[in-house]
Amino acid sequence: MDDYAKTPLQLPLIDISQPLNSSSLTTLSQACRDWGFFHIKNHGISKDLYTKICMFSKNILSLPLDTKLKLGPSSSLKTYTPHFIASPFFESLRVSGPDYYSSAKRSGDILFEAPNPEFYKTMQEYGKKMMELSKQIMIILLKCLGDGFDTKYYESEFGQCHGYLRINSYSPPGNIEYEAVEGLGMHTDMSCITILHQDEVGGLQVKAKDGKWIDIKYSEGELVVNIGDLLQAWSNGKFRSSQHRVVLRKPSNRLSLAFFWCFEDEKMIVAPDVVEKERIYRPFLCGDYIRFKVISEKGRFDKVKYTIDDFAVVDTA
Ligand SMILES: O=C(O)CCC(=O)C(=O)O
Ligand SMILES: [Fe+2]
Q: Fe2OG dioxygenase domain: from which residue to which, for each copy (predicted)?
Protein backbone atom coordinates (compact mmCIF):
# COMPACT_ATOMS: atom_id res chain seq x y z
CA MET A 1 0.00 0.00 0.00
CA ASP A 2 1.38 3.43 -0.85
CA ASP A 3 2.67 6.16 1.38
CA TYR A 4 0.54 6.88 4.37
CA ALA A 5 0.99 8.87 7.58
CA LYS A 6 1.04 6.84 10.78
CA THR A 7 -0.80 9.36 12.96
CA PRO A 8 -4.47 10.12 12.31
CA LEU A 9 -5.47 13.54 11.14
CA GLN A 10 -6.44 16.06 13.84
CA LEU A 11 -9.73 17.52 12.64
CA PRO A 12 -12.12 19.88 14.45
CA LEU A 13 -14.89 18.24 16.44
CA ILE A 14 -18.02 20.39 16.22
CA ASP A 15 -20.67 20.19 18.93
CA ILE A 16 -23.68 20.55 16.70
CA SER A 17 -26.05 21.17 19.63
CA GLN A 18 -24.34 24.47 20.57
CA PRO A 19 -23.97 27.76 18.73
CA LEU A 20 -20.41 28.14 17.43
CA ASN A 21 -18.22 31.01 18.58
CA SER A 22 -16.08 32.88 16.07
CA SER A 23 -12.87 31.04 16.90
CA SER A 24 -14.58 27.64 16.29
CA LEU A 25 -15.94 28.98 13.00
CA THR A 26 -12.42 30.01 11.96
CA THR A 27 -11.01 26.58 12.84
CA LEU A 28 -13.83 24.88 10.96
CA SER A 29 -13.35 27.09 7.86
CA GLN A 30 -9.67 26.26 7.83
CA ALA A 31 -10.37 22.51 8.06
CA CYS A 32 -12.92 22.77 5.22
CA ARG A 33 -10.41 24.63 3.10
CA ASP A 34 -7.46 22.32 3.82
CA TRP A 35 -9.11 18.94 4.19
CA GLY A 36 -12.83 19.16 3.47
CA PHE A 37 -13.40 16.89 6.47
CA PHE A 38 -14.47 17.41 10.10
CA HIS A 39 -16.21 15.52 12.92
CA ILE A 40 -19.50 16.30 14.67
CA LYS A 41 -20.89 15.22 18.04
CA ASN A 42 -24.21 15.65 19.89
CA HIS A 43 -25.99 15.18 16.56
CA GLY A 44 -29.13 13.74 18.14
CA ILE A 45 -29.00 10.32 16.43
CA SER A 46 -29.22 7.68 19.10
CA LYS A 47 -26.98 4.66 19.48
CA ASP A 48 -30.16 2.56 19.43
CA LEU A 49 -31.08 3.81 15.97
CA TYR A 50 -27.59 2.94 14.68
CA THR A 51 -27.76 -0.49 16.30
CA LYS A 52 -31.11 -1.10 14.60
CA ILE A 53 -29.90 0.04 11.17
CA CYS A 54 -26.75 -2.08 11.47
CA MET A 55 -28.82 -5.14 12.36
CA PHE A 56 -31.16 -4.67 9.36
CA SER A 57 -28.22 -3.96 7.08
CA LYS A 58 -26.33 -7.07 8.13
CA ASN A 59 -29.46 -9.19 7.66
CA ILE A 60 -30.07 -7.84 4.18
CA LEU A 61 -26.50 -8.07 3.00
CA SER A 62 -26.23 -11.67 4.22
CA LEU A 63 -29.08 -12.73 1.90
CA PRO A 64 -28.09 -14.98 -1.04
CA LEU A 65 -26.40 -13.19 -3.91
CA ASP A 66 -29.16 -14.23 -6.34
CA THR A 67 -31.70 -12.42 -4.17
CA LYS A 68 -29.61 -9.25 -3.86
CA LEU A 69 -28.95 -9.20 -7.61
CA LYS A 70 -32.69 -8.72 -8.17
CA LEU A 71 -32.07 -5.14 -6.93
CA GLY A 72 -29.22 -4.36 -9.31
CA PRO A 73 -27.01 -3.55 -10.99
CA SER A 74 -28.86 -4.94 -14.04
CA SER A 75 -32.44 -4.68 -12.75
CA SER A 76 -34.50 -1.53 -13.16
CA LEU A 77 -34.36 -0.69 -9.43
CA LYS A 78 -30.54 -0.35 -9.28
CA THR A 79 -30.39 -0.07 -5.51
CA TYR A 80 -27.76 -2.79 -5.04
CA THR A 81 -24.07 -2.58 -6.03
CA PRO A 82 -22.49 -6.04 -5.77
CA HIS A 83 -18.86 -6.95 -5.03
CA PHE A 84 -16.33 -6.34 -7.84
CA ILE A 85 -17.88 -3.08 -9.07
CA ALA A 86 -16.33 -0.53 -6.72
CA SER A 87 -13.92 -3.13 -5.29
CA PRO A 88 -13.86 -6.91 -4.75
CA PHE A 89 -14.55 -6.32 -1.05
CA PHE A 90 -17.36 -3.76 -1.24
CA GLU A 91 -21.12 -4.05 -1.71
CA SER A 92 -23.78 -1.45 -1.11
CA LEU A 93 -27.52 -0.82 -0.82
CA ARG A 94 -29.09 2.53 -1.65
CA VAL A 95 -32.18 4.11 -0.05
CA SER A 96 -33.33 7.41 -1.57
CA GLY A 97 -35.34 10.36 -0.31
CA PRO A 98 -37.55 12.20 0.04
CA ASP A 99 -39.76 9.18 0.80
CA TYR A 100 -37.25 6.84 2.44
CA TYR A 101 -40.06 4.51 3.58
CA SER A 102 -41.20 3.82 0.00
CA SER A 103 -37.67 3.58 -1.32
CA ALA A 104 -36.74 0.96 1.31
CA LYS A 105 -40.06 -0.82 0.70
CA ARG A 106 -39.44 -1.10 -3.06
CA SER A 107 -36.21 -3.00 -2.30
CA GLY A 108 -37.79 -4.87 0.64
CA ASP A 109 -40.73 -6.10 -1.45
CA ILE A 110 -38.24 -7.86 -3.71
CA LEU A 111 -35.89 -9.09 -0.98
CA PHE A 112 -38.22 -10.37 1.72
CA GLU A 113 -40.96 -12.96 1.60
CA ALA A 114 -42.96 -11.14 4.29
CA PRO A 115 -43.32 -7.33 4.54
CA ASN A 116 -40.76 -5.69 6.83
CA PRO A 117 -42.33 -2.39 7.92
CA GLU A 118 -39.87 -2.02 10.82
CA PHE A 119 -37.04 -1.71 8.32
CA TYR A 120 -38.92 0.82 6.18
CA LYS A 121 -39.87 2.91 9.23
CA THR A 122 -36.30 2.89 10.49
CA MET A 123 -35.04 4.11 7.12
CA GLN A 124 -37.71 6.83 7.10
CA GLU A 125 -36.66 7.99 10.56
CA TYR A 126 -32.96 7.99 9.66
CA GLY A 127 -33.48 9.75 6.32
CA LYS A 128 -35.55 12.46 7.98
CA LYS A 129 -32.97 13.02 10.72
CA MET A 130 -30.14 13.14 8.18
CA MET A 131 -32.02 15.77 6.13
CA GLU A 132 -32.42 17.94 9.25
CA LEU A 133 -28.80 17.43 10.23
CA SER A 134 -27.62 18.33 6.72
CA LYS A 135 -29.53 21.60 6.92
CA GLN A 136 -28.02 22.38 10.32
CA ILE A 137 -24.51 21.64 9.06
CA MET A 138 -24.99 23.65 5.87
CA ILE A 139 -26.08 26.70 7.86
CA ILE A 140 -22.90 26.44 9.93
CA LEU A 141 -20.82 26.10 6.76
CA LEU A 142 -22.49 29.20 5.29
CA LYS A 143 -21.63 31.07 8.51
CA CYS A 144 -18.00 30.04 7.92
CA LEU A 145 -18.12 31.87 4.59
CA GLY A 146 -19.05 35.04 6.52
CA ASP A 147 -20.93 38.06 5.21
CA GLY A 148 -24.38 36.87 6.32
CA PHE A 149 -24.23 33.99 3.85
CA ASP A 150 -26.43 31.79 6.06
CA THR A 151 -29.40 34.15 6.01
CA LYS A 152 -28.73 35.26 2.43
CA TYR A 153 -28.34 31.92 0.75
CA TYR A 154 -29.64 28.94 2.72
CA GLU A 155 -33.24 28.98 1.54
CA SER A 156 -32.70 30.18 -2.03
CA GLU A 157 -29.71 27.99 -2.85
CA PHE A 158 -30.02 24.92 -0.62
CA GLY A 159 -33.76 24.81 0.09
CA GLN A 160 -34.40 22.14 -2.60
CA CYS A 161 -31.53 19.81 -1.72
CA HIS A 162 -32.32 16.10 -1.56
CA GLY A 163 -30.57 13.19 0.08
CA TYR A 164 -29.88 9.50 -0.31
CA LEU A 165 -28.28 6.91 1.89
CA ARG A 166 -25.82 4.19 1.00
CA ILE A 167 -25.34 1.26 3.32
CA ASN A 168 -21.78 0.14 2.59
CA SER A 169 -20.53 -3.27 3.59
CA TYR A 170 -16.89 -4.29 3.39
CA SER A 171 -15.70 -7.89 3.59
CA PRO A 172 -11.92 -8.26 3.40
CA PRO A 173 -10.41 -11.51 2.10
CA GLY A 174 -10.27 -14.20 4.76
CA ASN A 175 -8.02 -16.67 3.00
CA ILE A 176 -4.86 -14.75 2.11
CA GLU A 177 -2.14 -12.91 4.02
CA TYR A 178 -2.23 -9.15 3.54
CA GLU A 179 -1.17 -6.02 5.30
CA ALA A 180 -3.91 -3.87 3.78
CA VAL A 181 -6.37 -4.02 0.88
CA GLU A 182 -8.36 -1.23 -0.72
CA GLY A 183 -12.01 -1.59 0.30
CA LEU A 184 -13.12 1.44 -1.72
CA GLY A 185 -10.84 3.18 -4.18
CA MET A 186 -9.91 6.84 -4.30
CA HIS A 187 -12.82 9.12 -5.18
CA THR A 188 -14.49 12.41 -4.40
CA ASP A 189 -18.19 12.58 -3.52
CA MET A 190 -20.77 14.06 -5.92
CA SER A 191 -22.64 15.69 -3.03
CA CYS A 192 -22.78 19.09 -1.36
CA ILE A 193 -21.98 17.35 1.91
CA THR A 194 -21.69 13.72 2.97
CA ILE A 195 -22.41 12.58 6.53
CA LEU A 196 -20.74 9.32 7.39
CA HIS A 197 -21.23 6.87 10.21
CA GLN A 198 -18.32 4.43 10.26
CA ASP A 199 -17.94 1.54 12.68
CA GLU A 200 -15.02 0.83 15.01
CA VAL A 201 -13.09 -1.07 12.31
CA GLY A 202 -12.09 2.31 10.83
CA GLY A 203 -10.03 2.59 7.63
CA LEU A 204 -11.29 5.80 6.05
CA GLN A 205 -8.41 7.87 4.66
CA VAL A 206 -8.11 11.29 3.06
CA LYS A 207 -5.42 12.34 0.59
CA ALA A 208 -3.30 15.30 1.67
CA LYS A 209 -2.15 17.97 -0.76
CA ASP A 210 1.34 16.38 -0.72
CA GLY A 211 -0.18 13.08 -1.89
CA LYS A 212 0.11 11.25 1.46
CA TRP A 213 -2.85 9.24 2.76
CA ILE A 214 -3.97 10.03 6.32
CA ASP A 215 -6.39 8.12 8.54
CA ILE A 216 -9.66 9.75 9.61
CA LYS A 217 -10.07 8.36 13.09
CA TYR A 218 -13.12 6.57 14.41
CA SER A 219 -14.61 7.83 17.69
CA GLU A 220 -17.76 6.42 19.20
CA GLY A 221 -20.74 8.78 18.97
CA GLU A 222 -19.12 11.03 16.36
CA LEU A 223 -19.97 11.37 12.69
CA VAL A 224 -17.62 12.36 9.88
CA VAL A 225 -18.72 15.16 7.56
CA ASN A 226 -17.03 15.82 4.24
CA ILE A 227 -17.45 18.41 1.52
CA GLY A 228 -18.48 17.10 -1.91
CA ASP A 229 -17.80 18.34 -5.44
CA LEU A 230 -21.00 20.40 -5.66
CA LEU A 231 -20.14 22.52 -2.63
CA GLN A 232 -16.54 22.93 -3.76
CA ALA A 233 -17.93 24.47 -6.96
CA TRP A 234 -20.60 26.57 -5.23
CA SER A 235 -18.07 27.95 -2.70
CA ASN A 236 -15.68 28.90 -5.53
CA GLY A 237 -13.12 26.44 -4.17
CA LYS A 238 -13.17 27.86 -0.62
CA PHE A 239 -14.23 24.42 0.58
CA ARG A 240 -12.35 21.40 -0.67
CA SER A 241 -13.86 18.15 -1.91
CA SER A 242 -10.99 15.82 -1.00
CA GLN A 243 -10.11 12.50 -2.48
CA HIS A 244 -10.66 9.72 0.00
CA ARG A 245 -10.74 5.92 0.15
CA VAL A 246 -11.23 3.02 2.55
CA VAL A 247 -8.36 0.71 3.49
CA LEU A 248 -8.98 -2.59 5.25
CA ARG A 249 -6.23 -3.77 7.55
CA LYS A 250 -8.07 -6.20 9.79
CA PRO A 251 -9.86 -9.40 8.84
CA SER A 252 -13.15 -8.00 10.21
CA ASN A 253 -16.17 -6.91 8.22
CA ARG A 254 -16.90 -3.19 8.21
CA LEU A 255 -20.20 -1.35 7.84
CA SER A 256 -20.66 2.32 7.05
CA LEU A 257 -23.69 4.52 6.39
CA ALA A 258 -23.00 7.35 3.97
CA PHE A 259 -25.68 10.03 3.55
CA PHE A 260 -25.24 12.22 0.48
CA TRP A 261 -26.96 15.62 0.49
CA CYS A 262 -27.11 17.08 -3.02
CA PHE A 263 -28.48 19.91 -5.11
CA GLU A 264 -31.47 19.08 -7.29
CA ASP A 265 -30.56 18.04 -10.86
CA GLU A 266 -32.10 21.19 -12.41
CA LYS A 267 -30.04 23.55 -10.28
CA MET A 268 -27.64 25.90 -12.02
CA ILE A 269 -24.54 26.01 -9.83
CA VAL A 270 -22.98 29.46 -9.74
CA ALA A 271 -20.74 30.69 -6.92
CA PRO A 272 -22.48 33.70 -5.31
CA ASP A 273 -21.09 37.20 -4.78
CA VAL A 274 -17.48 36.50 -5.53
CA VAL A 275 -15.77 39.67 -4.47
CA GLU A 276 -12.11 39.10 -3.84
CA LYS A 277 -11.40 36.87 -6.82
CA GLU A 278 -12.87 35.68 -10.10
CA ARG A 279 -15.12 32.66 -10.34
CA ILE A 280 -12.94 29.63 -10.88
CA TYR A 281 -15.80 27.46 -12.20
CA ARG A 282 -18.17 28.19 -15.04
CA PRO A 283 -21.88 28.00 -14.16
CA PHE A 284 -23.19 24.48 -14.80
CA LEU A 285 -26.29 22.36 -14.33
CA CYS A 286 -26.00 19.94 -11.44
CA GLY A 287 -27.53 17.09 -13.50
CA ASP A 288 -24.99 17.64 -16.28
CA TYR A 289 -22.15 17.11 -13.83
CA ILE A 290 -23.72 13.94 -12.42
CA ARG A 291 -24.13 12.61 -15.99
CA PHE A 292 -20.53 13.56 -16.83
CA LYS A 293 -19.28 11.59 -13.84
CA VAL A 294 -21.40 8.54 -14.52
CA ILE A 295 -20.52 8.42 -18.23
CA SER A 296 -16.81 9.03 -17.70
CA GLU A 297 -16.69 6.11 -15.29
CA LYS A 298 -18.65 3.89 -17.69
CA GLY A 299 -21.08 2.92 -14.97
CA ARG A 300 -18.31 1.95 -12.57
CA PHE A 301 -19.81 3.38 -9.39
CA ASP A 302 -18.27 6.72 -8.45
CA LYS A 303 -14.70 5.55 -8.47
CA VAL A 304 -13.54 8.85 -9.69
CA LYS A 305 -10.78 9.76 -11.99
CA TYR A 306 -12.55 12.94 -13.04
CA THR A 307 -13.46 15.73 -10.64
CA ILE A 308 -15.22 19.05 -10.78
CA ASP A 309 -11.97 20.62 -12.00
CA ASP A 310 -12.05 18.48 -15.15
CA PHE A 311 -15.64 19.49 -15.78
CA ALA A 312 -16.11 23.13 -14.92
CA VAL A 313 -12.85 24.92 -14.17
CA VAL A 314 -12.50 28.20 -16.06
CA ASP A 315 -9.53 28.08 -18.39
CA THR A 316 -7.49 31.21 -17.69
CA ALA A 317 -4.59 30.32 -20.00
O1 LIG B 1 -17.24 3.68 4.04
C2 LIG B 1 -16.67 4.75 4.23
O3 LIG B 1 -16.11 5.02 5.30
C4 LIG B 1 -16.62 5.79 3.16
C5 LIG B 1 -17.62 5.58 2.08
C6 LIG B 1 -17.52 6.59 1.00
O7 LIG B 1 -16.57 7.32 0.88
C8 LIG B 1 -18.63 6.72 0.05
O9 LIG B 1 -19.57 5.90 0.10
O10 LIG B 1 -18.59 7.65 -0.78
FE1 LIG C 1 -17.02 8.96 -0.42
A: 161-264
